[in-house]
Every structure is written in structure tokens, then in C-alpha cells.
Write the C-alpha cells for this entry.
Amino acid sequence: MNYDPNCIKCDRLSDYLSLSKKKYPDYFCKPVPAFGDKNVKLLIVGLAPGLHGANKTGRPFTGDHAGIILYETLFKHGLSNKPYSKENGDGLELLNCRITNAVKCLPPLNKPTPLEIKNCNQFLLSLIHI
């Protein structure tokens, strides 16, 4: 199954996104789509969107500390056109790689439950080409 921006399969995550949207009305606060080329040799998988990173920007590892390290590393190895990612639409492009999260929605305390991970597995599997 492909990414669904309207997925509400996990009640706890859906409720948390709604609360987050009320607190941060300018944030993305939806399931976060994968970012980068399709049909790639390298798929990078994070656990879940961060509150003030991907949940804010709508792009994995964008706007948080982990993203600083990741995007600098990708640039160093020729897998992106820039060494940083500040916000969605900043001109960053990935080269022959893609980034996603195992869980598409922001979980409370950054800790998805096993059922939430299982529910998102269908989206992750759609990105893996064996």
C-alpha cells in the first residue's frame, strides 16, 4: 500500500497529531511521506517523525538535530545536493537514495507501540524493492 496522508488507522497517533496541530497550528501534523528518488539503491529508515522536525516540516529528518548529521553525511558521500535541510521546499535533493520512517506519524514521547509499527509496515514494504 502506498503512502496515505489521511491515514487514521492508529487512534493514539491520530489523537496525538490532532493535539499537536492545536498546539502548533503551522506544523504539518500528518503522516509524513518518504523523501527522495524512487527506485533507489539506498533506503534510509528512521523510527518516526520528531515533534519539531518532520512533524513540523512534513519531510523526514528535516528541522531536527538528527537531520543535521544525516544530511551532512549524505552530502559528503554524494547522495544529496546540499549539506543541510532546514525546511520542506529548501531545494534539497537526494541522489539515488530515499528517506522514510518506519512509523509515519509522530508518536507520544517518540515511542510507537508494536501495533503502530505493524500498522505502518505496509507503507514501508511498498518502498522496499527486492
In short: The mean pLDDT is 93. The longest helix spans residues 11-23. The helical segments are 11-23, 54-57, 65-76, 114-125. The beta strands are 35-36, 42-46, 97-101.
